[in-house]
Every structure is written in structure tokens, then in C-alpha cells.
Design a protein that fits this description.
Oligomer: single chain
Shape: rod-shaped
Order of helices and strands: HHH
Structural class: mainly alpha
Strand content: under 5%
Number of helices: 3
Distance between the termini: 97 Å
Length: 92
Amino acid sequence: MHIRLIIGIATSITFAFLVFHLLFGKNSIPEQRRIAREIKLYQMQIDSLGKVIEERDELIQKLKTDSLYKEEILRTRYGMSRENEKVFQLVK
């Protein structure tokens, strides 16, 4: 009879310890959920930055190969013109 009582108490203590560890320990369920949310957020940032890198790579490739695109950039952003060309800039 005493052995059953001791085994019951030991089982209860072990069960209580496991529940406490699952709810409040270092690797608890809430901590695992928080980490999973962080991983999801970081993965979204990685995907977003991957798209930015792809866009920049395309831009670099265009600048290396497309002379009309380079000319457009030079004219619009930097106000450059061809030799003997008059440029009029309209200001609102």
C-alpha cells in the first residue's frame, strides 16, 4: 500500500515538473511559438530582400548592356545632353 502511495506521489511530482517545464521552461511551448513567429518574420524579410536583389541585378544588367537605357538615365537624372544639343527644362 505504501509503495503505491510513493509511486503515485512520484508520478504526480514528475507530471507537475513536466507541465511546469512545458509552460514556463527555457524550451516552453510559448517560447517555441515566439521563435516560430520570429523565424516567419525573418523569412519574409529574406524573401523581400531577395526580390530587391533580383531587381538590382536586372538594373545592373540593363546598365551594362542597354545603351538607350543608360542615355535615358543620364538625360533625366543628371541633365546631360549630346554635343550641340539644346536642352530646355520646364519647371512647374
